[in-house]
C-alpha cells in the first residue's frame, strides 16, 4: 500500500476523531443536540469508509457497530444515554490509538480483531439499556475514555486525579438524596459537570421528582476519600483513578497546547520587583533625554528621543507580561471570610449567611493581598450596620438568616467585586443628619444632593464617629479607610442602597497592577506625587482673581467659586513667605466638590508603580503610597481629597 | 419562601429544596423565561435539573456554570430531619 494513502488516512482520521470527541462531549452535556449527533454520525461514517479503504478491517468493524447505534438514535429508536456515550468514547479512544499506531509503524496493525470484538460487545451492551450496576471500584484508567476526557478539561489535569461518574437512580429524590450535595461532599473537587442523563423530551410532561442527571467530575483527593463521599450511593457511581502523567507527552502535531509550569511565588515577585525598578530606571533616562535635548545636536536629541520611546514601549510590554504571570484566583482570599462573618454575626446576635460567587476570577497577587482588610471592613460593616436583628427581619417579613453576597466578576481590564447585603439599606435621613453634624457639607447642599451623592458621604473621613465605633470597627477607622485602601490598589469603591432592600458596595479594581500616572508638585522644598486622576486641572492664577471668603479665600474657576487651600497648610508645613506673582493651583475633585490647592511649583508627569505603604505609614491619613524616582529618591504620593477631607 | 415571582422573573432565594422543584416547573411551564439566582445559596439537584430542562435565562451575580455556583459555602447539604419529602404521585 502506498505511503501516501496511509498518511492521508492518518491525517484525516486524526481530524475526524478530534471532532468526534468534541461532538460526544457536546452530546453528553446536551443529549438532544441534533447538530452534534449529525456531525458525529457523518464523522464515524466517513472514518469507517476510510478504514475499509486502507484495509483496516478491525477498525472498520468497530466503527460500523458505532454507526449502527448512532443511526438508531437518529431514527429515534433509542436515546443518547450515559452508557452509550461512554461506549462511543471508548471506540473513539481505541480508534485514536490505532491511528497513532498506523502513523508510527507505517502499516496497518494486524491481530486487532479481539479489541474490535470487545468494542462491539460494549456497544451491544450499551444498546441493551442501562449497563449493569458496577461496583464503585477503580477500573484501569486505560480502558475508560470518559475519565481521560475529563482530565483534558480539568485545570492542571496532569496530576493524580480520581474521576467519577455518578448517575443517580431516577427515584433518588424520593429516597432523600440530593446528588448535587453528594457531589459537593467530594473533597478537592477539580472539575464538575452536571448534564441530563436522557433528553428531557416533552416539557409539558416534565416530572420534577424523577432524577435525570449524570454528574461527572474529578477530584485531587485520594481514592478512599472520594469513595467515602459516595458511601451512600456506591452502586450509582463509577470511579476511575487517573495516575499523574509523569512527563507530558510531546505534542503529536505542531499545534501548541496551553501548558503550565509551577514557579515559586517568591521568584515571580522578585521578577516583578525587578520590572518595577526597570520602569524607574527608564524614567531616569527620560530625565536625561530631556536634559540632552537642551544642548545636544538636534539629530542626536531626536535619536535619543526615538530610542527612549522604543524603550518605553518595550518596558511597558515586559511589565504587563510579568503582571499577567502574577494573576491568582480570589478563592483563597474569599475562603477566609465565612468563619469570620459567622463569628462577627454571632457576636452581634444576628444570623448571616455569606454567599460567595465568582471566586475563580483572577487578579494580581498584590491586589488579592491588599483586599483582605477593606473587604473585612465592609463585611463587618454589613453585619453590624447593614443587616437587621432577627426580630426586625421577621417583622419586615424577611427571611432569617440574612444573606450577604460576596461576588467577583471580570469586566474587561477590571474586576468587579460586589458585597451586597439584604438588610435595611442606608437611612438617607440619618446619613444627611450625620454629615451635617460632622460638618461634611452645608445643610442646603445636603438637601440639594441626590441620594446617590449623599450616600457617597459615608466614605468621607470623619463620617464615622467615635460613638459609632464599636469594638468591631477595630482600629476605629471608617469607610474612608476602605476607599483609600482600594484607591491605593488602583481601584474605586461606590455604594448603592435601596431602603428596606439592602446595601451594595461595588469595588472596581484593575486586574493587573497598573503604573500610576503621577504629577509631581513641590511645596516647602519637598516634592510629592499626586495621582493625575484626582487632578481636574493644573493652572496658574493671578492673585487679583482671589476673593476673600469668610476665613479663607476662593477663586472663580469656570464660573464656579472654588475654595483655595495651600498644600503646605494641608500638610502642616510652613507657608511660603510673601505673595507670589502668580499662584500655581491644582483643581481637585473631593467628593462632588471642587477645591483649589496651591503649590510652589509643578513638576513633570511620570508613570511609576505605586507601592502601598506598610507599617506605621499605612495608617497616616492622606498618603496613598510611595514610588521610587529615577534618581533613587522616594516620592510620597498624596491622597489630596482625603487631606482636604 | 425561597421561590418568588416578580414580574417576569423567578427569584430563587436562600436554600432551594427538593419540594420547590414543582413550583419552579409550574412557573417556567407557564412561560416565565428568566431566573434570578443572585440570592440563591444552594440548589437542590431537583431544582437544578428543572433549570437544565427548561433552560431559562439565568442571571444574578458573577458568572460560572450552574452546578459550579449552585452550592455555596455554608449552604445546607441535602436533607435535614423534619424536611418535607416529595410525595409519590
Layout of helices and strands:
The complex is a heterodimer of chains A (645) and B (89).
Chain A: H1 3-29, H2 34-53, H3 57-75, H4 82-105, H5 113-127, E1 138-139, H6 145-153, E2 161-166, H7 172-175, H8 179-184, E3 189-196, E4 213-219, H9 223-229, E5 237-242, H10 265-295, H11 298-325, E6 327-329, H12 331-335, H13 337-347, E7 352-357, E8 362-364, H14 365-386, H15 390-395, E9 402-411, E10 414-421, H16 428-437, H17 443-448, H18 451-455, H19 479-488, E11 492-498, E12 502-510, E13 515-523, E14 526-531, E15 535-541, E16 546-549, E17 552-557, E18 560-566, H20 567-570, E19 583-590, E20 593-599, E21 601-609, E22 623-628, E23 634-638, H21 640-644
Parallel strand pairs in A: 1-5, 7-9, 14-23, 18-20
Antiparallel strand pairs in A: 2-4, 2-5, 3-4, 6-8, 9-10, 10-12, 11-12, 13-14, 13-21, 15-19, 16-17, 17-18, 19-20, 22-23
Helix pairs in contact in A: 1-2, 1-4, 2-3, 3-4, 3-5, 4-5, 10-11, 13-14, 14-19
Chain B: E1 3-6, E2 9-12, E3 14-16, H1 20-29, E4 34-36, E5 40-43, H2 45-54, E6 57-59, H3 66-69
Parallel strand pairs in B: 2-4, 3-5, 4-6
Antiparallel strand pairs in B: 1-2
Largest sheet of chain A: 6 strands, mixed
For the largest sheet of chain A, list the strands in their spatial order. Answer: 15-19-20-18-17-16
Strand order in the largest sheet of chain B? 1-2-4-6
Helix content of chain B: 25-40%
CATH topology of the largest domain in chain A: Heat Shock Protein 90
Biggest sheet statistics of chain B: 4 strands, mixed
Q: Can you summarize this structure?
A:
Chain A has 645 residues and is of the alpha+beta class. Chain A is 42% helix and 23% strand. Chain B has helices spanning 20-29, 45-54, 66-69, and strands at residues 3-6, 9-12, 14-16, 34-36, 40-43, 57-59.
